[in-house]
Amino acid sequence: MRGRNLRLMLMMFVQNMTFPVWFNTVIPYVKTMQGGDAWVPRCGMLMGVGMFASPLVCMFADRFLDSGKVLALCNFVAAAALSAAYFAVDPGRLYLLLLLATVALMPTWSVAAAIAMAHAPTSSFPYIRACGSVGWAASAVFSVVAIRWFGVADFDKSPLILAAGAAVSVAGGLVALLMPPTPPKAKGTPMSVADALGLRALTLLGRREFLVFSAVLLLGMVPFQWYMSYNTMYLDESGFTYLNLVQNLGQVAELGFMLVLPFILRRCGYKRSMVLGLGVLAARYGFFLAGAATGVHAFDFCGILLHGLIFGILIVGAQMYAAESAPEELRNQAQGYVMLLTAGVGGFLSVGVFDAILSANTLPDGAHDWTVPFAVALAVSLAAAALMALCFRPRAR
Question: Does 186 reside within a domain?
Fold first, then answer.
């Protein structure tokens, strides 16, 4: 049991390092390329586009191939795409290669979660997932080592982030091959078009409480995913040097919050926990609004450090709720649905809304007035919290 859990923790550590190594600062990097400004919105949507592959890949793991092997294959494809992207000098070619890498990597979060919950009780998942928070935070080590030890001052805005991402993806693929066997539960069962597209988990929307939960969570993802895509641009324009390191302080705090997440969910239940998470999301943008208005970085740090509690409740809590709601043969697809909803559709809506707001608040020097976007994010977060409190009525567990 202990050895198995250690392998699951290692999987979470490496798998959650593969993406932030390069994605956290890809927009500042693209902006350094000739004609790169026009590709910023597309790069902001990378996570959202990639998540649309999640249900399909999770269906494949449910029906055809051991989940560990699916996880390894996705990592190796991502490593190849990132290796090619390292040599790309045209932003259009770079985008296509990053899109391939993202399509391969995004489903791995759902598959890794399904593997962990297949071999450990759902109540233990937050502790295993906490190692993912460590891995995400540890992705900043590449930046710190390059800047402090090798004098690469602009590492976070250079193609070296892609080389680092390729290396970690290879490691993720090798670790995936060490996972305990997780055979496809639905292998050999009749398959419909919905199954072929990995959309069988949509049947859960036939339950009113799950439908309301999904709709309000999607609204909350509009301000939440904006942070994931654009916050390093805000940090860069605000004068921060270690972009990835500062951004990942939220994952350092996430580790502590993840360890208390089971207590929060057990004590408060899913409804009050989700209201709390959305309320803290509003508090984050209150801090960012104060930081943008005053130039005091302490407010920015407060907003970043709240990320762990927000992510733990809204994303991991949603994964746990979906796992308890879905039958065993749909667990992979239920995890794919959660990630499609939160990072896929939510990511698209977020970039669409906030890119328009940022464009309308561009300054003559190309920087932005961030107070308006933060005020909008604050208002949307408060609206989502109110709707969750008023409309979501989960069944008693």
Answer: no
